[in-house]
Every structure is written in structure tokens, then in C-alpha cells.
Amino acid sequence: MKNLKKGLSILTFAFVMVISLSVVNVNAAEIKLEDKLTELEGGTALTITKDDTLTFTGETWIGENGRISLVSGDVTLKYENNVVNITTNNTVSVVNGGKQFIMQIDTGRDILPVKLTNSENSTLTVKGTLAIPAGTKGVLINEGIVNVYGNLEIRSSGTYTSTGTTNVYGNVAVLADGTTSANIGDSIFTLYKNGNIYSEKEDISSNIVNGLEDTYEIVSNDKHYVGNTTTPLDRDCEYGYTLQAKEVEEVPVVPGEDENVSDNPKEEVSEEVANPETSDGILLFLGLTVVGIAGVALTYRRLHN
After folding, report:
1. pLDDT computed for residue 277 by the predictor
2. Of 29, 83, 236, 279, whose CA is between 20 and 30 Å from 11?
3. pTM (2 decimals)?
4. Shortest CA distance to 84 belongs to which of 53, 50, 43, 51?
5. Measured between alpha carbons, how far is 53 from 31 in angstroms, rounded to an integer?
6. What is the pLDDT of residue 265?
7. Neighbour tally for 32: CB within 10 Å
8. Which residue, among 10, 53, 15, 64, has the nearest Cα to 31 in the 3D structure?
9. So what's the pLDDT on residue 63?
10. Which one is predicted more confidently, 250 or 88?
11. Per-residue pLDDT tens for 61-115?
12. Residue 228: its pLDDT value, please?
């Protein structure tokens, strides 16, 4: 009977595991973007969850070890007004280290521009390279949090609009030919240790906040940006910003200026010992003692004579 119960328990466990794995496999989809392009360009929305894998021309674009990984939430792709809108939904997403995402989709017939919206309550972390391209006028909208550990490139006709938080621990390069304000508007970048912000033509210091203001200050860097994309960028910029540790100023110790405090304590002690009033008292005490002894002796002699 015990063996029968044990056998039934094992079978039950195995059955539950098979059912669970079946559910996971049903939910996780492998989607080939080239197979969905016609539907996408026709206006059909495509939703990718953290368990899905989106490939394009044999490469993983969204998925484990892909260009982008979803830790949680999902993203929606929808083609509207000749732009592929990619919107995050309560998502934690990562542009993986060693990977790049140039925000455009080359279908082989056309190059479709991308507008990526990192929505409120979403976090996008850039460990590799995220480039907002010039030719297709890419747009990155940040309503949540963007953390830059790798490279964020905002190229000449690309646009970055942030009403959320942008933390810079790596490199942000604003590569525009004199129209930088149109590229980033009022977007604020919070700069941290080891972070660098480059601006090719325009001073954007008003767009930068010091994230370590108590111990660091914003200074100029070497103003030379080297990118890491298919066509590496190598630019000398007119402006560059980084953080530098503040120098600690030694505060000199200033002696007190109290007039009653002697400059030479030893002399002051000596003067107290030689105080005339004190020595006079001692002499008076000794004199009285001698007189007293003499009086006692005289009285003693008179009594015995």
C-alpha cells in the first residue's frame, strides 16, 4: 500500500510538471518579425512579453541575450503615420552589453523610423548602445527612468524628449550641428561618477544636473567621443562634461584672541609664584612665629629664676 501511494504521488507530481511546462510553452512565443511585417505595416499591433522572443533576419532583437531583454512587463509595436511606435508597458528592459539598437527597421524595401516610448512606471537600462539615428529622424520619449551605463547617442536629426529621469553613468553624446536645443529640448540629464556627456556644437550645461553635488563638481572632459556601433563614431566635440572630486580645503587653526590669555603660559605661572602680596604674607607669618617662640622662652626663664 505504501509503495502504491508513493507511486501515485510521483505520477501526480510528474503530471503537474508536464501541465506547467505545457502552459509555459504555450505562453512563450517565438515571433519572426519578417513574417509579421505585412500585418504590422497594415496597422495590426504586435505585443511582445518578457517570455517571448522576437527575431529579425535570424537575429534576436527582443529576448534573452538579444539586443533588448525584457525583465518584466511587455512592449507593443504598432505602425502608425509611417512610424513604428514601440511602447513599454510597466516594463523593466535592458539594451544588453555588447549589443546595439539603432532605432530603425530595415525591411529590405524601406527603412522604417522608430519612435520608442519608455512609459511612466517603466525603466530602460542601456548597457550596450542605443542610437537615435539621423537619417530616419528617430524619437526616444522617456516618461519613466532611463539609466545609461553604455552609450546613448542622439544624432543630428534624432530627438530625445524626457519628462522622467535620465541617470548617466556611461556616455551620452548629443551629435548635432548647431541645433542641439531642438534635439533634447528641456530634457535633464543627471550626471554621476564616471559619466560623460558630449555635445558636438552647443553648450548644454543647463540640461545637466550634478548627481553627487556634495562631493563632486561638473568639469570639462576631453571632449572626444568614440561610439560603438556598426559604423563607429569618432567625434571631437566643442563641449564635454564629467564629474571630478572636490578638493578638500584645510581650514587653518587660528589661536584665540582673548586679551586675558597669556601668549606664554609658563611666564604667567612664574609671575603668580612671585606675587608680592603672597611673599609678604609668608614673611609676616614667620615673624610672628619667631616672636612667639621668644616670648615662650622668656617666660620659662622667669619662672625658673
Report:
1. 54
2. 29
3. 0.73
4. 43
5. 6
6. 52
7. 13
8. 53
9. 94
10. 88
11. 999 989 999 999 999 999 999 999 999 999 999 999 999 999 999 988 899 999 9
12. 81
Q: How far apart are the first and last CA of the chain?
A: 137
Length of the chain equals: 305
Mean pLDDT in residue range 294-301: 52
The mean pLDDT of 219-246, rounded to a whole number, is: 92
Q: What is the C-alpha separation between 123 and 125, in angstroms, rounded? A: 6
Question: One-letter amino acid identity for 259?
Answer: E
* Residue whose cell numbers read 548627481: 211
Q: How many CB atoms sit inside 10 A of residue 185's CB?
A: 13
Sequence letter at residue 237: C
